[in-house]
User: Fold these one by one.
Assistant:
Number 1:
Amino acid sequence: MGLIGSWHAALSVGVVPLLAILACDYMARRKETAVQTADA
């Protein structure tokens, strides 16, 4: 039980920053695309 709990905690700790990075990357790419479209 403890092992599963720590594994779940490690998974959460690993996934949350990953999602944050992906979200930031996605927003940056959308902004870049919007700028490129405006320039073109």
Number 2:
Amino acid sequence: MGISNYSGIEYGQMSLGIKKKFLLTSAFITDADVYIFDEPTNGLDSDSITFLIELLISLAEEKVVIFSSHDNRFLQELNLITYEIKGGKIS
């Protein structure tokens, strides 16, 4: 995800996108059975979103991936089973 260039920068000084990359990378380092993400594309640039989509598609082949997102491009490109919460109901 292109974070190696930021190793000498304090976390608080990083942009939202770089912070998000660090958080996502730390999540992917673990070998969990279930991954839960809240708005994983928030703050990411287009290239990082494309990389994340490819990674999540691959991950979802063997793991359970749950996330919330308002990013329609992200949701459409994932092409996974999705549920929508609208008016307090899941559809």
Number 3:
Amino acid sequence: HSHPEASNLYIIGGGGLVAEFEKLGFCCHGGPTEDEERFSEDGFKALAEEVAATRFDGVVVGWDTAITYYKITKS
């Protein structure tokens, strides 16, 4: 960890990236578990509320062959 209080990350990338950060003690969200997530215009409001209620200390972007607007919006 370069930042002593950083622990909660949102990952745009593959399972290997998630695994490496988890080995370092980070709590990871996103990654390939959200590859199929989509949202409608109505769902955007719910996603915005979810994001506002969740504190991410950082966003890590790696190679993601399943990148979606959902992931970009959530990050």
